[in-house]
Design a protein that fits this description.
molybdenum, 27 strands, metal-binding, EC 2.10.1.1, 28% strand
């Protein structure tokens, strides 16, 4: 093993710059599929979906009541003592057709039947009251779901009402994950040598892929061997739309990934201008995008949370989302490193009607404690400092209501 001098190389983007760079550089090869309505929710429509029917086809009652002729009320409420069902009025139930000549509905709450005689308590205000005319609920050729719109549960019902049986959607992308490193053993191992680490990032990625609507293939752990890494990358490029490779992108004596990608592909980002996860990278191999993520779980998490999410949103033609923000008072001192921005993981809580942020040092606590505590980020530019009492903007990874009663 030979000493490898650390040298900063190439473009080192900030977090937001990296997200935009990925989207600009990836030529997404999207596939499409047709799904029935049972499987349409949360899918992204590949085209405008137009109604095949109008709804209603005939005038229908908006609510339960009686159908009447508005002309009978031109002089106020008439004497209805001798009115008969089927002549002067009909019962009009919600969603049922109101046939001619009846053109107005009176709420059932505004009528009484006393000894079988109809009594109307309130005069209808307008002709057509409480009646949905033809096409008022779904119009002719109306677009029910727009192209690139994520289909919601209510829209599934709308599509069914519009005569739609199936929809064309963007198919889930295929992601291949390649964990590398002689020091790793599978998380499924019953026991492992004391000089090994458990490879768990694949399971974290699997969970993120479920959130991001992507299909994941996890490769076996690849040892630190250039030819075996190349073989894995080649296989991944044949089956996946996006490749993630874990570790091997830093400057260890056996970190071969970027060397290989540099000679066999194209490295566009060698490392980032922010921490944690500074040794994330972006390359192309056999015309497939390769997102390199740092081995330590904390850095790997942020790469999946920010960069993979941005790729997935772009793949589905969705607007890049931002985390909800709150103004917080910091309860600590902190100075970002001089050579990189820092995405500071913090615990945010509310006290005396103000939001506060406490620092969590990933190197000073177990990962379990970190994950239990941190619920947001403060993004600090390189070389800048925070001092106790400063007010800054923090990003939430939980809903705001979840931090209201924490301390």
């Amino acid at each position: 093993m030979a000493y490898r001098e650390y040298v900063e190389k190439g473009y080192m983007p900030s977090r937001e710059m990296m997200k935009k760079f990925l989207i600009e550089q990836i030529d997404f090869k999207r596939n499409f599929e047709v799904v029935d309505l049972y499987n349409a929710v949360d899918k992204v429509s590949a085209e405008d979906v137009k109604a095949k029917v109008i709804l209603p086809k005939l005038p229908v009652s908006k609510m339960d009541g009686i159908g009447v002729c508005f002309a009978d009320f031109k002089d106020g409420i008439p004497d209805t003592e001798n009115w008969q069902e089927g002549k002067e009025y009909i019962f009009a139930n919600t969603g049922c057709v109101v046939p001619e000549p009846y053109d107005t509905v009176i709420l059932i709450e505004d009528v009484r039947f006393i000894d079988g005689k109809l009594k109307i308590l309130a005069k209808p205000e307008t002709k057509g009251q409480l009646i949905d005319p033809p096409g008022s609920l779904i119009g002719k050729d109306e677009v029910l779901v727009n192209k690139y719109e994520k289909i919601t549960a209510p829209q599934v019902g709308l599509l069914a009402s519009g005569g739609i049986k199936e929809v064309k959607v963007i198919a889930r992308p295929k992601i291949a994950f390649i964990p590398t490193g002689d020091e790793l053993v599978s998380w499924q191992s019953e026991d492992y040598p004391v000089d090994k680490n458990i490879e768990s990032n694949s399971m974290m990625l699997s969970a993120f892929c479920k959130q991001y609507q992507a299909d994941l293939t996890i490769f076996p752990i690849i040892p630190d061997d250039k030819e075996k890494i190349k073989e894995a990358l080649t296989k991944a490029s044949e089956i996946a739309d996006i490749i993630l490779i874990n570790a091997g992108s830093s400057k260890g004596t056996k970190d071969f990934t970027l060397d290989l990608l540099e000679t066999e592909g194209e490295v566009l980002v060698y490392e980032l201008g922010c921490r944690p996860g500074k040794h994330s990278s972006f390359s192309k191999f056999n015309q497939k995008p390769v997102l390199g993520i740092a081995g330590p779980p904390n850095g790997a998490e942020l790469a999946m949370r920010f960069y993979l999410k941005a790729i997935m949103q772009a793949y589905y033609h969705q607007k890049l989302s931002s985390l909800e923000t709150v103004n917080v008072t910091v309860d600590f001192d902190f100075t970002a490193p001089k050579n990189a921005d820092f995405c500071l993981q913090v615990h945010i809580f509310k006290q005396d009607d103000k939001y506060h942020a406490q620092i969590i040092n990933p190197k000073g606590v177990t990962r379990a404690t970190l994950l239990q505590k941190y619920n947001g980020f403060i993004y600090q530019l390189k070389g800048t400092s925070l001092n106790v009492g400063d007010e800054v903007t923090a990003e939430l990874i939980v809903e705001r209501k979840e931090i209201e009663n924490q301390n």
